[in-house]
């Protein structure tokens, strides 16, 4: 028994390692959340960050399915929507102040969203989790279509097209937060984002969380170690629904309105893209994806009419060339730098960056010129004082030459890196 | 009948018109090490799949420790104390070696679908996992992702997952297939140690391993058991020599 | 959108040069879809507002200040609209322009009311130019919201007025999308027809799911079997075009009275099948009699934005009324402008327009028109254009409906 | 009676059109295991290509050239896109086609604008063929019927009577075996993907002017095509045919049923004035395929005719 204990100590990470790997990132995350308001962000920034917080929780909950359990869902917004709708109703009950509702703080909304999301997951997951793989993906699509249609049919629950709105200041103060000013809402979102992130991280450390990964890798083998993979998927699905509902509760307070559009395939597709671009194989991937995509979704459209095309290109590019997403790139880079191999790869990296930049120049020029040509207002794309008209030779030089050059450089960089690794 | 760990009664399995298992009767005593041999295509893997619940029998019954298990699902059978390995390594590829074994340990230790416990704090689970890794000799590679293991180690891990749950009846499907001589010797030693005091049913092509390990041997040909007995009896059985061993002697390797 | 902005601004540079004395600009945030499929509704509206602003600025501006229309793309998402709204407010916009989608409008009305309550002294006004849910100027009315388009019930009033005049219409079929808007249209049609022409039989009243039907032939078959003389529908988008197309394919030549027949691309999609089948009710079409200035404006629009047609006349009315209100109030502060706007009357292109004080609903003439060949102005770059039908001019008084609005006004 | 006749006629035409779309998707899925999310986008491309070709030539030329162009586009997508993600499994492939659908949508908007284009029925076919119960029946619909049946026969002939068809058949039943036949598998994949897309393109050519050619047509048609192939059984052409017909007929006939839920479940005490009770079968018609999808997959995960659970 004694040597067993010693091996046990050897195997498990040491206290210091545990602290460095698990606790420290959480402390840093909490610190970052706490420090942000010191910079005096504008209300626009606060609104954007609040939406980032909501999307971080939402993307992580989506990744409980796709990244952790191998279940591709095209309808995850259903659970955020149902959780959020429930919270909006609860907020209205609070504002009406009847019965015990008057005592419930609006601050606790995400807990209600969590419960509603779990319930929705339990009900809808029962039929849909009996299948995995493509049938599951298709069922999720079908269910999403049905729920979104129901959203328009049942006015008393979903408020029809106009949706249902509520007032976040309807309840009494909690922790000194009236939830009126956006600064208050920021603290609320920060708190619940932290709870959501820690909660979902903790989930990966439970037996069920581990089994969900095992089921993703090899559902058949799971059966032969005593687990029912359908049950594993179903339970994970309920939790994913619950955390999506938590995000719904956060959203209900931030935006104070829910519309049937929140249940539709559009937000489901958006969160799929965010999680994937962030990197579904890493716990932090969807967090990065949510931050980047929320920012781009709200701000890219200020700069170009082609933002949807850019997002699409980016998504396809990630699927094709960077399957581990932003997180994969970040951690890969970090590994190389911390492994002291930076010098070896610096050359090929520089080539690669240059290649990417050239490709970007070419793509952006093509897209911008194409959009202006398509609009037909005779407007000309004028970066850096260059007049790039769709008919001019210069434009096509700016499109073709950097593209060819960039492709060449990227190929060379790939070859160089192959040599380093082999 | 009390001493029987596993009992197959007139077991049949057909895929469409093809009758793969045609009426198998077999009793395996508790603590017995039983090997099944036979040419390729005789239905050995199908038999394993029937016993472990992966396939449903067309007719016939299977009893485990006095309970009927035919018709039950694999995970139910596993929980009743029967565990199996696979011919082709069937492990959790994206997890580490330690996590692989831990998945095998969890259910039997009562942590089922628990989502309120931190797996790192489950001391018994960690100890049991470490003990198994130590036993099978993978302790040094505990933190490697399973995909990065060399082939023989993956086979070992396969066995480790199979025995991790502490099942009383263990089914091993060609555990040494594709291993070198020294690797095979190590695997046999491991199997002997791991199956100590347990009931073992093994399918194996390596006759050295079979005759070394088994208390009794059954010969399966075209879905039927043509002989069962001690290694000596089987060696001397003319039917077996004709149907199986003879072939092998002439052609070297079973076709 | 950006390209649009620069396109208009390029021309506006000269105007600014002339009126360089104007130091201040009044920012108006245009929050509507400017990318994706719905951009075809947002873009022409943005262009209309920009053109209108350009003309006002060229004529001396609003109390000497210039209007600047700043576009924000909301992707027709209510949530995204709230992000863009915050962005707009922070960038100094005190006036919000929006119209596409009652869900977005409802979100903005709510958000603006809350913002104004939580940030006194920083009030924002919402000019709604196209979201037509009646509730916005009835039970859900708000002091901070002004609507420049006739709402569903008013448009239905115009339709039923016209139907009432047509003695040959004895049977009416009502079909709509299965959500609040479709239900409201159906309810209004039934109630108004019963009152104006009790002898008319409603031979069908049917809802179908929103944007899910691909083949309307079975619906049209039901309509034909019912023997209807006219069809009333609140459908928009594909649901409207596909419905009318299926009717045209079946050789049906009865009026399909729509709210959104004038949307971009509808006539192009239907081709000649639209003639005398597709009807719409609106605050004006280009082929109505108008002043030479109006014709000049229509032509300038078409020349500048060849992809679209002059459609959003109410955009011009909106800014004209804002200009007049600011002048009357002597200020461009939202509260003062809002109060000045109440009860204000301006002369719009196709008749007088009055902002009713009690509910902030613009009262204006409405016109029932249909598609015909060889008109002065075609649409969708075809030779088909809108023509006023007999008895199709409905006065503002006739189109008006009472309101249930109980407005809370700031001191 | 008249409703039955119309429901049958229109249901069959709609079903055949659905089958045209889903047959290509099924072919692709059977061979490659890829559920092509962008399939409806190729349908849209077919309609737009035909519209543009019609401006320079006529409908009949477009009818043949446009599907070929769509097929070529499909081959390019397979060769330079899908093949790169193939090694990473089906989810990566599904996601690739998901992103591709976004891209095609945007590119179509750049080239043809954001609103509908006037893609007209050819004048030769623009006349009422006969009058049925007071409604004229457009000749073009019968033309769709003929083209669809022709395609059905051609597909059947190709699969049952030609060498290429035999290889494809072999691949349908034994997807892992094709490689052993000594055939150039990547080449076959590329051809099959191209052919599948061309079929979708053909559906676009004849469906684009039957319905409306605008940038939303892919999004509108996409989900229903998935429903067809999944309900029919992934990888089964017969299943796709049956499911397409079933959904075509179901949708068109449900429209003519005015009964509400209260009428049907009234015995349970459901009132016609309540929100649920007031829903009519007709208003639910377009949702029925999705309901069918969920039900079929719960009861029979392989679909109606499929034998593979993916």
Question: Would you mind describing this structure in some detail?
Answer:
- The complex is a heterotetramer of chains A (422), B (255), C (411) and D (310).
- Chain A is mainly α.
- Chain A has two domains: 14-307, ABC transporter involved in vitamin B12 uptake, BtuC (Orthogonal Bundle), CATH 1.10.3470; 341-421.
- Chain A has helices at 2-11, 15-35, 43-69, 77-96, 109-128, 133-153, 155-158, 182-204, 207-217, 219-223, 229-255, 265-278, 285-303, 307-321, 325-338, 342-375, 393-421, and strands spanning 164-165, 257-258.
- Chain B has a single domain (4-251), classed as Rossmann fold, CATH 3.40.50.300.
- In chain B, helix 3 packs across helix 4 (123-136) and helix 4 packs across helix 5.
- Chain B is globular.
- Chain C is of the alpha/beta class and 411 residues long.
- Chain C has helices at residues 2-18, 39-58, 78-90, 102-118, 152-165, 180-196, 217-226, 238-249, 266-270, 292-304, 313-329, 334-341, 396-399; strands spanning 25-32, 66-73, 95-98, 125-128, 145-147, 171-177, 201-208, 230-233, 256-258, 278-282, 345-348, 351-356, 361-364, 366-373, 384-394.
- Chain C has a seven-stranded mixed beta sheet with strand order 7-6-8-9-10-14-15, with helices on both faces.
- In chain C, strand 11 and strand 12 (351-356) form a beta hairpin.
- In chain C, helix 3 (78-90) crosses helix 4 (102-118) and helix 11 crosses helix 12.
- The two termini of chain C are 38 Å apart.
- Chain D has twelve helices and two strands, in the order H-H-H-H-E-E-H-H-H-H-H-H-H-H.
- Chain D has a two-stranded antiparallel ribbon.
- In chain D, helix 1 runs antiparallel to helix 9, helix 3 (59-86) runs antiparallel to helix 7 and helix 5 (139-161) packs across helix 6 (163-173).
- Chain D is globular.
- Chains A and C meet through helix 3, helix 6, helix 13 and helix 16 of A and helix 1, helix 3, helix 4 and helix 6 of C.
């Amino acid at each position: 028994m004694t040597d067993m204990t010693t091996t046990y100590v050897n195997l498990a990470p040491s206290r210091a390692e545990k602290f460095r790997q698990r606790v420290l990132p959480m402390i840093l995350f909490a610190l970052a959340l706490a420090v942000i308001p010191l910079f005096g962000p504008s209300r626009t920034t606060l609104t954007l960050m609040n939406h980032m917080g909501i999307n971080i929780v939402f993307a992580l909950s989506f990744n409980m399915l796709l990244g952790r359990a191998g279940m591709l869902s095209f309808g995850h917004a259903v659970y955020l929507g149902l959780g959020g709708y429930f919270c909006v109703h609860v907020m209205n009950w609070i504002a009406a102040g009847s019965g015990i509702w008057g005592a419930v703080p609006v601050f606790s909304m995400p807990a209600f969203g969590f419960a509603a999301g779990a319930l929705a997951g339990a009900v809808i997951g029962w039929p849909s989790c009996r299948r995995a793989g493509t049938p599951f993906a298709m069922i999720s699509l079908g269910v999403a279509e049905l729920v979104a249609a129901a959203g328009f049919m049942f006015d008393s629950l979903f408020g029809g097209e106009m949706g249902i709105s509520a007032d976040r200041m309807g309840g009494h103060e909690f922790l000194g937060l009236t939830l009126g000013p956006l600064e208050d809402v920021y603290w609320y979102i920060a708190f619940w984002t932290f709870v959501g992130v820690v909660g979902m991280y903790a989930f990966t450390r439970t037996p069920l969380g581990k089994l969900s990964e095992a089921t993703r890798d090899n559902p058949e083998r799971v059966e032969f170690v005593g687990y029912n993979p359908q049950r594993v998927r179903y339970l994970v699905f309920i939790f994913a629904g619950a955390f999506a509902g938590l995000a719904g509760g956060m959203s209900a307070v931030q935006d104070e309105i829910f519309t049937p559009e929140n249940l539709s395939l559009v937000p489901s597709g958006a969160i799929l893209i965010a999680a994937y671009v962030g990197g579904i194989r890493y716990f932090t991937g969807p967090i990065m994806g949510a931050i980047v995509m929320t920012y781009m979704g709200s701000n890219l459209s200020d700069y170009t009419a082609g933002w949807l095309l850019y997002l699409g290109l980016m998504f396809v590019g990630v699927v094709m060339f960077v399957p581990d997403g932003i997180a994969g790139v970040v951690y890969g880079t970090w590994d190389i730098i911390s492994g002291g191999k930076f010098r070896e790869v610096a050359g090929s990296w520089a080539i690669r960056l240059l290649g990417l930049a050239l490709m970007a120049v070419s793509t952006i020029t093509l897209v911008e010129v194409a959009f202006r040509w398509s609009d037909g207002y005779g407007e000309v794309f004028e970066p850096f004082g260059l007049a790039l008209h769709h008919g001019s030779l210069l434009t096509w030089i700016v499109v073709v030459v950097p593209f060819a050059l960039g492709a060449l450089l990227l190929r060379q960089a790939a070859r160089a890196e192959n040599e380093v690794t082999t | 009948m009390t001493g029987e760990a596993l009992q197959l009664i007139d077991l049949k399995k057909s895929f469409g018109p093809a009758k793969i298992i045609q009426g198998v009767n077999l009793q395996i005593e508790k603590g017995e090490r039983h090997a099944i041999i036979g040419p390729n295509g005789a239905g050995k893997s199908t038999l394993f799949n029937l016993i472990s619940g992966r396939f449903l029998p067309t007719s016939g019954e299977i009893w485990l420790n006095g309970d009927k298990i035919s018709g039950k699902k694999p995970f139910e059978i596993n929980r009743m104390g029967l565990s199996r390995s696979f011919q082709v390594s069937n492990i959790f590829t994206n997890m580490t070696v330690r996590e692989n074994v831990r998945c095998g340990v969890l259910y039997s230790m009562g942590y089922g679908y628990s989502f309120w416990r931190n797996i790192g704090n489950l001391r018994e689970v960690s100890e049991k996992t470490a003990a198994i890794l130590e036993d099978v000799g993978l302790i040094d590679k505990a933190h490697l992702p399973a995909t990065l293991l060399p082939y023989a180690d993956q086979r070992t891990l396969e066995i480790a997952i199979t025995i991790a749950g502490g099942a009383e009846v263990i089914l091993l499907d060609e555990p040494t297939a594709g291993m070198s001589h020294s690797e095979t010797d190590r695997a046999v030693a491991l199997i002997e140690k791991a199956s100590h005091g347990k009931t073992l049913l093994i399918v194996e092509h390596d006759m050295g391993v079979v005759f070394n390990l088994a208390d009794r041997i059954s010969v399966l040909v075209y879905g039927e058991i043509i002989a069962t007995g001690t290694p000596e009896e089987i060696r001397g059985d003319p039917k077996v020599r004709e149907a199986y061993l003879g072939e092998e002697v002439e052609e070297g390797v079973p076709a | 959108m950006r390209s649009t902005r620069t396109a208009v601004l390029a021309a506006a540079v000269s105007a600014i040069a002339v009126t360089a004395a104007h130091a201040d600009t009044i920012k108006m945030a245009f929050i509507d879809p400017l990318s994706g499929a719905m951009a075809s509704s947002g873009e022409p509206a943005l262009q209309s507002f920009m053109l209108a602003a350009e003309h006002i600025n060229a004529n001396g501006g609003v109390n000497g200040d210039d209007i600047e229309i700043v576009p924000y793309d909301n992707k027709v998402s209510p949530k995204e609209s709230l992000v863009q709204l915050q962005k707009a407010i922070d960038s100094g916009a005190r006036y919000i322009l929006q119209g596409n989608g009652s869900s977005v409008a409802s979100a903005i009305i709510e958000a603006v009311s809350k913002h104004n309550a939580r940030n006194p002294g920083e009030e924002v006004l919402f000019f709604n130019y196209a979201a037509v849910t009646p509730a916005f100027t009835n039970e859900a009315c708000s002091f901070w919201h002004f609507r420049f388009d006739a709402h569903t019930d008013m448009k239905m009033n115009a339709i039923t007025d016209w139907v009432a005049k047509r003695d040959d219409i004895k049977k009416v079929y009502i079909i709509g999308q299965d959500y609040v808007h479709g239900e409201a249209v159906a309810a209004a049609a039934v109630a108004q027809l019963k009152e104006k022409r009790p002898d008319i039989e409603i031979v069908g009243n049917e809802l179908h799911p929103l944007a899910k039907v691909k083949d309307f032939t079975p619906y049209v078959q039901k309509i034909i079997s019912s023997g209807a003389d006219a069809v009333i529908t609140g459908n928009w988008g594909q649901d409207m075009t596909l419905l009318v197309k299926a009717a045209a394919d079946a050789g049906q030549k009865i009026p399909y009275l729509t709210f959104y027949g004038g949307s971009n691309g509808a006539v192009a999609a239907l081709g000649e099948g639209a003639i005398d089948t597709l009807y719409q009710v609106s605050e004006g079409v280009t082929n109505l009699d108008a002043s030479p200035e109006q014709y000049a404006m229509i032509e300038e629009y078409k020349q500048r934005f060849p992809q679209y047609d002059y459609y959003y006349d109410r955009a011009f009315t909106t800014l004209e009324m804002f200009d007049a209100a600011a002048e009357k109030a002597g200020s461009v502060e939202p509260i003062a402008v809002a109060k000045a706007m109440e009860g204000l009357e301006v002369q719009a292109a196709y008749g007088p327009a009055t902002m009713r004080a009690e509910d902030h609903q613009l009262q204006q003439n409405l016109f029932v028109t249909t598609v015909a060949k060889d008109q002065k102005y075609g649409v969708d770059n075809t030779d088909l254009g809108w023509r006023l039908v007999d008895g199709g001019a409905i006065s503002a008084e006739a189109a008006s409906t009472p309101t249930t609005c109980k407005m809370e006004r700031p001191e | 009676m008249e409703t039955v006749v119309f429901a049958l006629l229109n249901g069959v035409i709609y079903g055949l059109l659905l089958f045209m779309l889903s047959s290509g998707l099924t072919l692709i899925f059977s061979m490659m295991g890829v559920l092509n999310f962008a399939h409806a986008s190729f349908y849209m491309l077919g309609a737009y290509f035909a519209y543009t070709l019609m401006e320079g030539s006529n409908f009949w030329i477009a009818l043949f050239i446009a599907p070929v162009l769509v097929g070529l586009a499909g081959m390019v997508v397979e060769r330079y896109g899908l093949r790169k993600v193939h090694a990473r499994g089906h989810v990566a492939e599904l996601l690739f086609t998901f992103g591709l659908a976004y891209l095609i949508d945007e590119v179509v908007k750049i080239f043809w604008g954001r609103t509908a284009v006037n893609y007209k029925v050819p004048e030769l076919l623009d006349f009422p063929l006969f009058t049925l119960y007071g409604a004229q029946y457009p000749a073009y619909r019968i033309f769709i019927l003929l083209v669809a049946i022709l395609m059905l026969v051609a597909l059947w002939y190709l699969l049952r009577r030609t060498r290429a068809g035999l290889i494809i058949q072999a691949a349908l039943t034994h997807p892992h075996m094709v490689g052993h036949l000594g055939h150039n598998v990547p080449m076959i994949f590329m051809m099959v993907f191209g052919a599948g897309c061309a079929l979708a393109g053909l559906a676009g050519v004849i469906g684009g002017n039957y319905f409306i050619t605008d940038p939303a047509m892919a999004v509108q048609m996409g989900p229903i095509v998935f429903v067809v192939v999944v309900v029919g059984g992934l990888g089964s052409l017969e299943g796709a045919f049956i499911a397409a017909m079933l959904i075509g007929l179901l949708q068109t006939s449900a429209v003519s049923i005015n009964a509400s839920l209260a009428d049907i479940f009234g015995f349970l005490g459901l009132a016609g004035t309540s929100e649920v009770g007031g829903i009519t079968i007709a208003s639910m018609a377009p949702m029925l395929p999705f309901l069918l999808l969920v039900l079929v997959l719960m009861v029979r995960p392989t679909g109606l005719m499929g034998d593979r659970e993916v």
